[in-house]
């Protein structure tokens, strides 16, 4: 009878230790998972700052360029132009943004090198 009680206590002790270990493991896992949003938000904030800095450098380079630079969509609609590009065609920037690249090219240029846009 004593031997049976020892085995039962031993089993209870082992199960208790195993339960504590699993509870600790689950707690650590939960803590790890709960910290992830803060880490991700920090990474997003850092990347956003880098992207803003990169965009500012890009805009400065484009605006200060002596050549006309145009940004257009896949249909040839002008989305943006730098100051040199605006001066090149003598339109206001608002008027230029309503144009298509085909409107800006001469007939001779279009005959030599046709502009092709995907449908």
Automatic annotation (TrEMBL):
CDD domains with a match to the protein in the record: PAS
InterPro entries: PAS (IPR000014), PAS-like_dom_sf (IPR035965), PAS_fold (IPR013767)
Keyword Amino-acid biosynthesis tagged: no
Keywords, ordered alphabetically: Membrane, Transmembrane, Transmembrane helix
Parts of the chain that traverse the membrane: 12-33
Cited Pfam families: PAS (PF00989)
Residue ranges occupied by any PAS domain in the UniProt entry: 54-109
Top-level taxon of the source organism: Bacteria
NCBIfam families, per database record: sensory_box
Name this protein carries in UniProt: PAS domain S-box protein
Organism encoding this protein: Maribacter litopenaei
């Amino acid at each position: 009878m004593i031997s049976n009680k020892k085995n039962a206590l031993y089993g209870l002790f082992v199960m208790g230790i195993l339960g504590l270990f699993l509870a600790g493991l689950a707690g650590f896992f939960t803590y790890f998972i709960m910290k992830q949003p803060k880490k991700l938000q920090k990474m997003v904030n850092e990347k956003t700052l880098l992207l803003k800095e990169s965009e500012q450098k890009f805009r400065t380079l484009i605006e200060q360029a002596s050549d006309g630079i145009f940004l257009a969509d896949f249909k040839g609609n002008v989305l943006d132009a730098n100051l040199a590009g605006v001066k090149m065609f003598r339109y206001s920037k608002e008027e230029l943004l309503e144009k298509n690249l085909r409107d800006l090219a001469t007939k001779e240029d279009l005959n030599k090198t046709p502009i092709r846009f995907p449908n």
